[in-house]
Amino acid sequence: MNNCVGHTLPQQALFRPSVVERHNTACQRSSGNILCIVPSASKAEDVPSHKSFLSSRFLGKTPYVGKGNPLKQNLRTVAMSPQALLAADPASELARKFKLNANSELEVSICRPTSESPIQIDFQVAYDIGSLVLHWGVIRQTRREWSLPSHYPEGTKLYKNRALRTPFTKVGSISSLRLKIDDPEIEIVEFLILDEAEKKWYKHNGRNFQVHLLKQGNQNPHVSVSGNPNIIVPEDLVQIQAYLRWERKGRQAYTPDKEKEEYEAARMELLQEISRGMSIEELRSKLTKKTEVKPASREEKTHRVESHEGGISDDLVQVQAFIRWEKAGKPNYPPEKQLMEFEEARKELQLELDKGTSLAELREKIMKGSISTKVLKQLKAKKYFSIERIQRKERDIMEILNKNVAETLDEKTSQIAPPLTVLELLAKSIHEQDGESVLNQKIYKLDNKDLLVLVTKPFGRTKVYFTTDQSEPLILHWGLSRKSGEWMVPPTSSIPPGSLLLEKSCETPFTKGLMIDQDYQAIQIEIDGGDYAGIPFVLRSDDKWIKNSGLDFYIELGNGSIKSRKAPGDGSGVAKSLLDKIAELETEAQRSLMHRFNIAADLAEQARGSGQLGLAGILVWLRFMAMRHLIWNKNYNVKPREISKAQDRLTDLLQDIYKDSPQYREILRMIMATVGRGGEGDVGQRIRDEILVIQRNNDCKGGMMEEWHQKLHNNTSPDDVVICQALIDYIKSDFDISVYLDTLNKNGITKERLLSYDRAIHSEPSFRRDQKEGLLRDLGNYMRTLKAVHSGADLESAIATCMGYKSEGQGFMVGVQINPIRGLPSGISGLMEFILKHVEDKSVEPLIEGLLEARVELRPLLLSSHERLKDLIFLDIALDSTVRTVVERGYEELSNAEPEKLIYLITLLLENLALSTDDNEDLIYCLKGWKHSMEMSKQKDDQWALFAKSFLDRTRLALSSKAEYYHQILQPSAEYLGSLLDVDPWAVSIFTEEIIRAGSAASLSALLQRLDPLLRKVAHLGSWQVISPVEVAGYVEVVEELLAVQNKSYTQSTILVAKHVRGEEEIPDGTVAVLTPDMPDVLSHVSVRARNSKVCFATCFDDNILDEFRRNSGKLFRLKPTSDDIVYSEIGKTEPEDVGPVQAGDEQAPPSVTLVGKHFSGKYAISAEEFTNEMVGAKSRNISYLKGKVPSWVGIPTSVALPFGVFEEVLSNDINKEIVSQLQLLKEKLAIGEFDALLNIRKMILQLASPIELVQELKGKMQASGMPWPGDEGEHRWELAWMAIKRVWASKWNERAYFSTRKVKLDHDYLCMAVLVQEIISADYAFVIHTTNPSSGDSSEIYAEVVKGLGETLVGAYPGRALSFVCNKNDLNSPKVLGFPSKPIGLFIKQSIIFRSDSNGEDLEGYAGAGLYDSVPMDEEEKVVLDYVADPLIMDKNFRNSLLSSIARAGYAIEELYGSPQDIEGVVKDGKIFVVQTRPQM
Predict the structure, then answer these.
(1) Which residues are paired to 188 by β-bridges?
(2) Average pLDDT of span 533-549
(3) pTM of this prediction?
């Protein structure tokens, strides 16, 4: 029998983090990962053989936990870095593995089969690639130098009388050999590995390998495999030291390699302690915080034996450790911390025994309740001290793709306004009569007729007008009141003629009238003084009483508290009629939540008809309510069950819209999140009944509890959930009143709000200590009742509603049984149990995984017409909300997280956001990119961080786009309705911002912010991308967007810090630098303009740097850029401003540029052979010049043109006479600075008619050149082409071009526009090349950018970056990628024609006019959301290298042809390069 150490260690021995290795059946050797460490102070032999309850986790690395054992039977666990072992048996074995290279691994095993046998050292190299020899020698105890043994294996050769070389025996891919050491003086075997074929040496971290063969007196031999000599440190101490290092470094999440490095560093620290003279026992005492080791007294020995024999048994230690773990929030302990926790648990139990507690009492105390069952379950599941994880199913991420795009429907206003009704005419008349003194106005429904009530107060006297279009005679039965529910008899001075005075009321008949042939009835009541609050009333028609939904009508008199309401603007961009109706009904809605929810339900159909804007209006209104900006209850008592019923009605209607209109689901979810679930029957009534149970059970019928009881009976609201939680927190804190107030304040409930309720809460809670347990139990039960009504997004309540529950607790939820939803996915119950069990855990990853798995599992039901869809929606909202809460809770844990951990969390949050988004295609492709970046990181791809950075930028763009979308849809409604309802302006201004902050997008944005600097560091990107490196000095000016100031002229040198730069703006006069967090392409118009104008232009990725500039707005700064960084400093008042021509106050002189006017040549269309300087611009001439001169593998598209002067000739044609006269008027306005005329000029040009001669000549030239004629497909196709031509001409008057020519004092009238006509190549990719690197000015380096699809996304203002690369002209086969693409959109088009601008204002020396004017395709491009993970340019390195090399070679060939740097545009189709234009690089 092989008596190796693995066969004698106890079964519960702990082991370090492991990798999976195939089991070697030939030799049953124990791996060196097995450590003789147990969770007690006893020897290994004394430990009972129960199974381990400790995990294999180490420093934050998480094992996979699912059903069953994920490892197959033929796999075993081996150590990543076993170091040393104290043998438990004279015959012992140890193994260690070393990486030789990426493919080869050395394992060294040491074994002594019997005590008399020589020590055997086995060497085995797996997957080696050469012929290996062991170059070795030994070190003896008596001589501390390399020497040779007396015995060695056959085949060993002596090398220079100084070393032995023993060849390995190779079988298949395994090379092995065995040494036998029988000399007791030999202490160390030292060796290297030599690959003779490759002449390559393998060492251990640059040093010789050493095998230590140590003895300690006559005790058992110690065997060590190590790169460090002499000393063996017990592994339990190394583990503890590694843990202490981990804590000192802020509990970072280590990669496996870093974890291994830390473990070795811990060992070295302990070896240093031992080398200073510290013994192992002293080291153990220090690390476990024990007292100094000293001989034990007889009494101590006796006590120790009794304690051990009498038994603080391991099961008690386990339970105590489990209790400590739960109290700590179930953290994820590494093995070292687990050991310390067991030691602490044992100490706590011993302390109890020392106090006199007996073992029996101790056991009874800690084993109460279900704790032992919990521990047993943890032990069986092997999940104790580790984080339990659910097993997520493998799915294609495209399964959660949504493409439900909501169309924004602007309200259509009729050209002819409908005639005013008689009540509207009467209201208008009263408004005109009483002016701005209107205090209240309400309209009540009387079957199919209306009742209008208006309250005014002109000259201090209150007037109340009642008017109706009802034809039957009516009597007003009315009174006055000073508080809700009161009826008082009116004073005689207020009683209209013909009234009948009753005991507590008055009856007044309506008087009939006629207005514009419309009948009406009216009453006017005047009230002088009396401090009355309102008028309660009902109507009587003969013997029929007419009420307001079964209740009395009530109109508030206002008393000056209602302000005049004015809406901003004309209500454009909102569902105006709906919002006006909401404002009209707000006074009624303020009576109670029941009224508000019923009104919302009444308006639901109108909102649906108004589309997205209508639903946005409902959301704004209800969120104003939820955020307590509107009154919840005023002078009205309502039963909780009535509120619950109203909620139920509203949410049922929202559910129906959700089913039928998938494009509105996102906004409907937000609406439902502001409303509780509600319910029919006694769901609401229980709120009233169960507060009485609490008071009765716990003897708390007075004070605050009675006041709260009265409020609950009068008008319950979501505030009651907060009050209940505050009471629970107060009691749990041992009756600390500050905790009660803190919970209220954190949730927006101040003392003033408590006093504002109709049934005010004046008192603070005060309970006896003997009430504590009962109150906690009963308030906990009551919370479920409150949440069932008010908290639709509460997780526990939502889960219970969907999974089903029965009555619990005496007097609570009595008789209640909610059935589980039918058709739930199998396993969903376990997921819900997992979520509730771990919802408070400190480790967030496993919980988020569970939440997401539940959401994905529920998704098919959410897309169906399930009978209980509403409950499923509320559950999904709750799961979504919990993800955000959990991530925010885990921010501290992520403070020092490695990039890989942050990326994984980002993938989880992206998935969560995608599940809540109607149109999530961009988010899905971002998610795919992040997942691929994780794979690249695992594979050690040197471009993984650069790749991840591109998806970080794209994800930011997606979040920014989502925020802009919300702002566009919601903010106008918030501003319009907020003004009508007198909501505080600050609440209106941040409305959309608060919506965004409340969602998971905000959490995702925060993680991206943390990851960005880490990725930039790994990818060596720095904090800047310098697009135009120019040293400047200027005064800092902060602007929102460059577009807003592009036409401004600064009087002093200015450094603009612009939040938004799109890429197509002009740079304002006087600007010396533009700094932005935006990412315009290096070859965008604004980038080219900056370089041409010698303006410093850079993207800054560090918000802290930009914030510093923003704080220093108005101060003078100097910028000194390099190609990839900017050094900046403030210029002091006494410091000389020595930057030369860019000193503050200097102005940049405009270049001296002149235009030569062009004239009509008599030809409407010409072929490429006719392209001359007088006929067309440089763009057309250059493309004609390239034809036949570039290499054959570079394609040049066929071209024709409409030459200079054609536009002016078309204008002069009689068919356009009227347009010419209008254009002249607009140009006159433009000349005096009315720049709005530019838009109208462009519109006017689009109305031009085409002369028949133009059509005929263009058709002839196109057909002769082999190009298709659009008119052959029908007249409508020619009309499309003609419109594209006119749009090119009209671009002469676009704002950017006009102000650019104005800046350099070009005569705009002399600017002429030819039109280059080319057949569109349906491109796979488009590119722009600068044959001299524009950022560095390096003429030996080509710089290019590539996009998917057409080039408009590159040269136009499309967000995101292109793929960028450089290529040395001396090595065109080795392009270097600088950045991967982040543009979310690609443009694609079928076979078509493009009409390119070609003016005489482009490519003038000293003036970069290129890109100012438009090129227009005949057909509209298709916008496609790009999936880069499916793009070979991104995913296939060989394809990418080949394509980029071809692009670089094309650029080099054209530069060689012209003999000067070129700015080249082209496309790629089916691998072939096409150049569509070239111009001198500016």
Answers:
(1) 139, 212
(2) 89
(3) 0.68
